[in-house]
């Protein structure tokens, strides 16, 4: 087995084009430099105008909120709380203390993101993308559920340990690649997914004990005292004093590490101090108000767009922008609460806004030259006896139905009625889902020529899940029944929307950046899930187990329809093998060979959307089968597409059945969703794949 890297011919063409441009006369260079300066100046003015609009929107939304909620004279709003009656004091805290917390928390997260970006020289680094916040959240959840005595002195210590551990994992995974910008962010975002999956499992099993934790984790900023405001204010003052002596060394480190060392800068010490500051501040924010995603990244990105270079000014502006962004988000959430008749956490709102932010960021990064290394596991080409693998998958399904655990321990079950009614439908449903996800993964990896693409990673499955949720909510309001057919159409629409977005972005950015789109869409779905869980609607709460990826709802009367759909879509994918193989060589080559590129590409996208939607409706959106199985098929010798596709289909079916079986019996009598088990296994594989990038790069 070896690790190979893929490279796009278009990148080489672009490099040659850039080289030819660089060979132009100096006068041309001067005019281009002058034009680039004008472009930067125009962009700077545009973003300063955006800054002014942001200030005005924050002030206006705050004024509307105060005019609706505060009935006393405006001057009384700033009176000491002890001089107000209980109702007025509660409203004052709800308005003023919440606004102060939003300003301070958003400002601190903006400063943390600037420090992290300065540290790793990566404009996409932040507390969210490097997994700092989710690590702190998971640590607090684990301690609250299992070791509550550890939090007796305050949650910040527990959150700090979780933040340090998750950030250390991200840095350890990306260090061998010399902190390649794309690899660093991918490692952080996949760590986010894995830790969030673990947290979801805990919340699912300890629903009653974790209700309050979940509400807190959603990022509620509403306050009933000044405690959090004072704690964040002290943290802001201390952070300002800590950052002052760091300004000069961080400025020198932004140029070159070797030069900074020659000038006497203790690089390792400065890096350790910055990591410590980022972890402490993020832990404080998470422990006080919950997880607030993407605010720090948005603030730092606006600072970069404004063209501010001095580190001191960058930190100040990031604090102001982060404060305004979170204040505006909080005000909007509070204004929507009476309209939607539910509490809206600001953290969920920022998660929903995360996907548009990431898309905007990668469009801004398309001009920057970042080495994108995408590894792929491959073996030697060999003939594959597919019938043997088919017999193996059938044997796995049979054993999953017969070898069970119950109150008497492990045993072979001979109860055919129970097997036919319960175990066989679940195993067959898992097999059909694994087959569809694996086929979709092969199609996407071949079509995009990106070995790290899959329906889950690119956000196609999340798009299908979002489409189903929106259809479930909106269709009854339109007078339509939310039956299986209409939900299938809404899920298909969501998956197609994501695929079309990916195809559009593929023409503008490198293939590696497309993976970030899927992470952003997954964050959007996570925000929607928070809203669903907090809505109190029992119909929506019933979708939570499905969203975690379970086969529990599989029925003997419906599983055969799912198998039929899987077989039909698999046969259609076999019919598209020849044009797909040609498209994998590039659109230019495909056109020269007579392939109608646009219709065939659209047809493959529709097929991928159908595969993703059907599998998502069956077991939910969580799984890495589509990423992992095509690589396993290649490592077993199925290099050619006509061998890889059927072998991947069989492997996907077998692995999903195993994941379902493990989820059912590994912690009997409790049950883990099959999709979550597959997500944890596949996420670990994804991180291992990232770890292999340096080997590929060195070769």
Please provide a written account of the structure.
It is a single chain. The protein is an all-alpha fold. It is 74% helix and 2% strand. It folds into 2 domains: 37-351, ABC transporter involved in vitamin B12 uptake, BtuC, CATH 1.10.3470; 385-402 and 409-698, Orthogonal Bundle (ABC transporter involved in vitamin B12 uptake, BtuC). The chain has helices at residues 9-22, 26-69, 86-120, 132-146, 155-174, 181-205, 207-217, 227-243, 247-253, 257-262, 267-289, 295-305, 311-340, 346-352, 354-365, 386-402, 416-448, 460-477, 484-506, 511-535, 538-541, 544-547, 556-575, 577-583, 587-592, 597-619, 625-635, 641-665, 674-691, 693-698, and strands at 2-5, 375-378, 403-406, 409-412. Helix 12 (295-305) crosses helix 13 (311-340). The chain is globular. Mean pLDDT is 78; it is low at 1-36, 369-377 and 694-699.
List keywords for this structure.
two-stranded antiparallel sheet; mainly alpha; disordered C terminus; 30 helices; ABC transporter involved in vitamin B12 uptake, BtuC; 74% helix; 4 strands; 699 residues; disordered N terminus
């Amino acid at each position: 087995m070896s690790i190979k890297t893929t490279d796009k011919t278009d990148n080489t063409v672009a490099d040659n084009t850039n080289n030819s441009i660089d060979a132009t006369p100096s006068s041309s260079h001067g005019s281009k430099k002058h034009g680039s300066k004008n472009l930067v100046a125009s962009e700077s003015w545009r973003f300063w105008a955006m800054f002014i609009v942001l200030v005005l929107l924050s002030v206006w939304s705050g004024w509307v909120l105060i005019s609706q909620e505060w009935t006393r004279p405006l001057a009384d709003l700033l009176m000491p709380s002890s001089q107000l009656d209980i109702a007025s004091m509660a409203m004052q805290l709800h308005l003023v203390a919440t606004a102060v917390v939003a300003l301070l928390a958003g400002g601190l997260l903006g400063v943390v993101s600037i420090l992290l970006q300065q540290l790793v020289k990566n404009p996409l680094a932040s507390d969210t993308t490097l997994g700092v916040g989710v690590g702190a959240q998971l640590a607090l959840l684990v301690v609250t559920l299992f070791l509550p005595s550890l939090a007796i002195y305050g949650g910040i210590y527990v959150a700090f340990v979780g933040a340090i551990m998750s950030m250390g994992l991200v840095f350890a995974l990306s260090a061998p690649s010399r902190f390649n910008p794309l690899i660093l962010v991918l490692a952080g975002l996949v760590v986010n997914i894995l830790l969030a999956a673990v947290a979801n499992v805990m919340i699912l099993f300890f629903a009653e004990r974790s209700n309050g934790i979940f509400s807190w984790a959603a990022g509620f900023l509403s306050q009933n005292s000044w405690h959090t405001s004072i704690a964040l204010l002290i943290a802001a003052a201390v952070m300002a004093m800590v950052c002052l002596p760091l300004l000069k060394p961080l400025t020198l480190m932004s140029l070159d590490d070797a030069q900074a060392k020659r000038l006497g800068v203790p690089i390792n010490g400065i890096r350790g101090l910055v990591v410590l500051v980022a972890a402490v501040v993020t832990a404080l924010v998470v422990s006080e108000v919950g997880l607030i995603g993407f605010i720090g990244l948005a603030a730092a990105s606006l600072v970069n767009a404004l063209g501010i270079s001095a580190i001191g000014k960058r930190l100040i502006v990031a604090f102001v922008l982060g404060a305004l962004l979170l204040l505006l988000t909080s005000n909007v959430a509070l204004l929507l609460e009476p309209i939607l008749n539910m509490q809206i956490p600001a953290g969920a709102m920022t998660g929903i806004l995360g996907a548009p932010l990431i898309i905007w960021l990668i469009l801004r990064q398309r001009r920057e030259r970042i080495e994108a290394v995408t590894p792929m596991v491959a073996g030697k080409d060999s003939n594959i006896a597919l019938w043997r693998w088919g017999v193996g998958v059938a044997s796995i399904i049979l054993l999953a139905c017969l070898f069970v655990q119950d109150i008497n321990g492990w045993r072979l079950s001979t109860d055919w009625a129970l097997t036919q009614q319960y175990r066989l439908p679940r195993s067959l449903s898992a097999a059909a889902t694994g087959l569809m996800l694996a086929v979709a993964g092969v199609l996407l990896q071949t079509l995009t020529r990106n070995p790290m693409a899959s329906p889950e990673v690119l956000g196609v499955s999340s798009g299908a899940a979002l489409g189903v949720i929106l259809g479930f909510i909106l269709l009854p309001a339109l007078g339509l029944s939310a039956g299986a057919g209409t939900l299938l159409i809404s899920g298909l629409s969501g998956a197609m929307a994501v695929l079309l977005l990916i195809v559009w972005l593929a023409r503008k950015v490198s293939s590696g950046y497309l993976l970030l789109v899927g992470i952003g869409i997954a964050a959007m779905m996570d925000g929607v899930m928070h809203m669903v869980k907090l809505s109190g609607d029992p119909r929506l709460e019933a979708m939570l187990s499905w969203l975690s990826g379970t086969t529990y709802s599989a029925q003997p009367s419906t599983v055969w329809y799912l198998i039929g759909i899987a077989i039909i879509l698999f046969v259609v994918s076999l019919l598209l093998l020849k044009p797909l193989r040609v498209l994998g060589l590039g659109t230019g080559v495909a056109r020269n060979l007579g392939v109608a590129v646009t219709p065939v590409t659209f047809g493959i996208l529709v097929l991928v959307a159908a595969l993703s939607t059907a599998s998502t409706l069956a077991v939910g959106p969580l799984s890495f089968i589509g990423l992992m199985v095509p690589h396993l098929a290649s490592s077993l010798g199925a290099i050619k597409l006509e061998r890889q596709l059927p072998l991947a289909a069989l492997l996907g079916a077998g692995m999903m059945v195993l994941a379902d079986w493990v989820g059912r019996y590994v912690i009997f009598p409790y049950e883990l969703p099959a999709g979550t088990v597959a997500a944890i296994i596949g996420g670990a594989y994804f991180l291992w794949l990232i770890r292999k990038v340096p080997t590929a790069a060195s070769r």
